Amino acid sequence: MEIGTDLGPSQRTTPVWSVELAVAGTLAVAGAVVMADSWRVGTGWAAEGPQAGFFPFYVGLILFAASGWTFVANLRAERRDHANFVEWSGLRRVLAVLAPAVVFVALVPWLGIPGNHFHARLVVILITRLRDPRFVVALA
User: Fold this and answer.
1) What is the extent of the structural domain holding 42?
2) d(Cα 91, Cα 69) in Å, to the nearest integer?
3) Higher confidence at residue 46 or residue 34?
4) What CA–CA distance (Å, rounded) separates 97 from 85?
5) Considering its fold, how many domains does the chain have in total?
6) Pairwise pLDDT comparison (130 vs 54), residue with the higher score
7) In 42-87, which ranges are continuous DSSP H helix?
8) Using alpha carbons only, what angle is made at residue 124 by residues 122 and 129, rounded to the nearest 5 degrees?
9) What is the pTM of this model?
10) Are residues 70 and 136 part of one domain?
């Protein structure tokens, strides 16, 4: 029996191999963008030394190669890890931190950082406390 297959349908999210495939594909695209832009600004060796894109090009190449290797490895059916990537309870805890952070970043242009800090803390408090019935009654 594989790890993660004993979970009920309500606890299963997505298998590890599909998440690794998505991350590897995203990083491969990022590596390709770095290489293309480095090529645009120059990757050669000038009289003064390396051009501006010399080192970023090779960093992008390494990123692209490593991500490509991971992508291809996860496409092979016999190497796929079918374990559950995350349980819903763990995902809820991550989203409880991530959602207010996204709201915080989205509101910075309008509220500024000091004002937004207060609002972000308020959102975190509301999200975490709305599960507690005593808090909801006290809020009402």
Assistant:
1) 1-86
2) 28
3) 34
4) 19
5) 2
6) 54
7) 54-75
8) 95
9) 0.63
10) no
